[in-house]
Amino acid sequence: MVAINTGFGKELKKYGAFDFNTCYNCGNCTAVCSLSTEEDSFPREMLRFSVLGLEDDIKSSLKPWLCYYCGECSTHCPQEANPGELMMSLRRWLTSEYDWTKLSGLLYKSLSLTIIAFIISAIGVIIFSVSKNFNLETIMHSGHNFEMIAIAAVFGIILFPNIIRMWWFIIFKPNIRVPVSKYFSGLWELLLQMFTQKRALDCDENRFRWFEHFILVIGYLGLLFTTVFLDWFSSKNLSIIVLGYVMSIAIFIVTIDFVSSRIKKMKEVSKYSQPSDWMFVIWLLLIGLTAFAVRLFIDTGLLERNIWLYIVHLIVLVQWALIIVPFGKWPHFLYRSFAMYFAKIKR
Ligand code: SF4
Ligand code: SF4
Question: With a 6 A CB cut-off, is 272 part of the ligand 2 pocket?
């Protein structure tokens, strides 16, 4: 006997869903979705599961991650049930279900808590800078160490266990038997989706957005590699310096476009923005902008007299690494890639 949870709709609305109860099950949304297939049919089914509050069925489903939010289904819904935004809300909800710390859910649902977390991390960086007497060299050295430790800690302590939980809900709990060899042979799919998100190309509406996302992923990973592993801010190697500039400019240009389309709300995909959506694009933009400015100030000999600029960059970085990457929208990128991987090995 399936337990129906009518309170689930209320909970989902805290993650951004609209009045999806107006859905009368016509199936238009599934018919127009270019990513929906016979084996993996959505979003109508997810609407039904959400209306009935079938939490376990949603948790064991990969479908919310198979949607790339082109917005076609919402445009064609006669009931304005906004299935595209419902799929987005399900991804937010699933992110908080996978998260063993439960902090994701708290931050998704409470803007005040998120702001408090941002303020605490900013104060932490300022207190640290004061304790080091605003010594630029020491603070920059600590900033670089922080990047390396944060990457290892966030992945090892939070994101990796969350991926194991995702696997638990999707493969283990429903008792799906997958030969070990499939886990290895499917790894290519994981890497391919992670770096290219190529499935989004199957969505006609998404081609330019796919290109922007691709540049963003390359720019972000490139800047991470340049600053963390090639120590961009201390490097005297011209190729590394130029590479860092190119990567930070790429991030800046793409995120400016993302922010402006969210402000203009012209496309279905950017009509509805939750605080987590805003934070994701704005903090990426700030990372690109402040990293570029710090390196420019180093090259022009201005940073010594303007240490505040590096402190601002460090604050942005700490907030990004400790809040947005483990608990915000960033893990969507990871879970979506793993969803494609799990879909492949399940088949
Ligand atoms: S969400 Fe809209 S288009 Fe989809 S089944 Fe419901 S009413 Fe029809
Ligand atoms: S937003 Fe696009 S990809 Fe997602 S379910 Fe709707 S039509 Fe399909």
Answer: no
Pocket test for ligand 1, best of 25, 50, 75 (most atoms within 8 A of CB): 25
19 lines ligand 1 (CB under 6 A): no
Rounded to two decimals, the pTM is 0.92
Q: Which of 327, 248, 333 is nearest to 65 (CA)?
A: 333
User: Both tokens of residue 223?
Assistant: 């800047």
In the reported structure, the alpha carbon of residue 182 is separated from the centroid of ligand 2 by a whole-number distance in angstroms of 28
User: Where do we find the tokens 């990128």?
Assistant: 333
- Best residue among 20, 23, 87, 88 to mutate for probing ligand 1's pocket (most ligand atoms within 8 Å of CB) is 23
Could you give the domains of the chain? 8-98 (1.10.1060.10), 103-346 (no CATH)
- CA angle 69–75–78, rounded 5-degree value: 130
314 lines ligand 1 (CB under 6 A): no
**C-alpha 203 to ligand 2 mean position (Å):** 8
Instruction: State whether the beta carbon of 77 lies less than 6 angstroms from ligand 1.
Output: yes
For every residue of 294-342, DSSP letters joined together read HHHHHHTT-GGG-HHHHHHHHHHHHHIIIIIHHHSSHHHHHHHHHHHHH
Dist CA 104 CA 292 (whole Å): 30
Could you list the pLDDT tens digit for every one of the 347 residues in the chain? 566 787 898 899 999 887 888 999 999 999 999 999 988 899 999 999 999 999 999 999 999 999 988 889 999 999 999 999 999 999 999 999 999 999 999 999 999 999 999 999 999 999 999 999 999 999 999 999 999 999 999 999 999 999 999 999 999 999 998 889 999 988 998 998 888 888 888 776 667 888 888 999 999 999 999 999 999 999 999 999 999 999 999 999 999 999 998 898 877 777 888 999 999 999 999 999 999 999 999 999 999 999 999 999 999 999 999 999 999 999 999 999 999 999 999 87
Element of type H or E holding 203? none
